[in-house]
Amino acid sequence: MASNVAALCFFALIASASATVFFEEKFGAGWEEKWTPSTWKQSEGTAGEFTWTAGKWYNDEEADKGIQTGPDARFYAISAEMEPFSNEGKDLVVQFTAKHEQKLDCGGGYIKIMPGGSDMAAFSGDTPYNIMFGPDICGVSTKRVHVIFNYKGENLLTKKTITCETDELSHLYTLIVKPDNTYKVLIDNVEKASGDLEADWDFLKPAQIKDPEASKPEDWDERPKIDDPEDVKPEGFDDIPEKIEDPEAEKPEDWDDEDDGEWEAPMIDNPDYKGEWSPKQIDNPDYKGMWEAPLIDNPEYVADDKLYLYEDNKYVGFELWQVKSGSIFDNVLVTDDIEYAAKVGEETWGAMKDGEKAMFDKAEEEKKAEEAAEREKAEEERKKLEEEGEGEDEEPVEEEEDEYEDTKDEL
After folding, report:
1. What are the tens digits of pLDDT across the range 201-249?
2. Which of 92, 293, 321, 380 has the fewest CB atoms within 10 Å of its CB?
3. Which cysteine pairs are covalently linked by disulfides here (predicted)?
4. Has 110 been labeled as part of a binding site?
5. Beta strands of 216-365 (E only): which ranges?
6. What is the reported pTM?
7. Residue 301, annotated as binding a ligand
8. C-alpha closest to that of 335 among 20, 114, 115
9. Is 32 annotated as a binding residue?
10. According to the annotation, is 404 in a ligand binding site?
11. Which domains are seen in the chain, by residue range?
């Protein structure tokens, strides 16, 4: 028994030793030395800047510092270099926290993993990337988590809709890509989506297609219902008029045939009229359903058991457009160790969330109290103005009464 426990510990140590952290950034002091702001959009005056802050609510002001976008309506781009790696045969985990304390109305909040070969000093929306992952919010319609993979030069967006968080607090976003071509997306360490890469992205041509040479057989019957051949039109059916004279109508007593013409009763709908006759419908015994061409193997389909694979991963960065700035990004992690990523998530986001929420709730209460006080003050001022206005209206009346008394005395 002891030998088995020792063996398990040995293999656990081997697994732990083989796990690699490719990049980790908690944005402590000196973070600027690792990150390169892009010159993209600077000449146009539309480049934003990242500032180092914990924001307006936090658990620990120093420990919870990240990089925040500002000012509004700007493009943002910043990147850091990793030790180049390939994820062949390994899990790949990309994780970070995002806090939209400005209540983001339109803008991105995603991270990118990029290959080498690009000038990261000019990092832009055109810079090639391997993976783009994170929340994107714009208006009412777009509130989703982007998971985009580059495959043979084409950026492919997931076919699933993964809803992102839209409040003003920090949330942990985790993407796991496994060497068996499966994936998971977690938010706050809770699984929100998972599945097969080939099924949920258009990496490959479809494995099967409709046979282009197939045609519908001439005797294929697509009619679910048919006329009942035994249903016969009743005799005299077509003789029933649509309108008849109102049997309850009476000729008015003052009706003069010579002056008014011959009186005729008004016409009304005939309750016995049934419209045009048609035989009743019955189930078609020969119905075969709607015809579809049979599926055949797609000659253009080429299987790929390495859809997950990116041989060259060298940079990590944020490249965003935000109408309303103020998003804070923190706790960036790129690793092949799923357990370590979960541990880091709990030690960072997990440790801050309760204190941050308490500070946010307190700020909201103070804000509501201040707004209520302002409304009360405004109401008091309104009432005061109304009272003053009523007093001003009474004075001319008194003057008019005095003038009337003077006139009466003179008379």
Report:
1. 999 999 999 999 999 999 999 999 999 999 999 999 998 999 999 998 9
2. 380
3. 106-138
4. yes
5. 225-227, 243-245, 267-269, 281-283, 295-297, 313-322, 327-335
6. 0.77
7. no
8. 20
9. no
10. no
11. 19-202+306-357 (2.60.120.200)
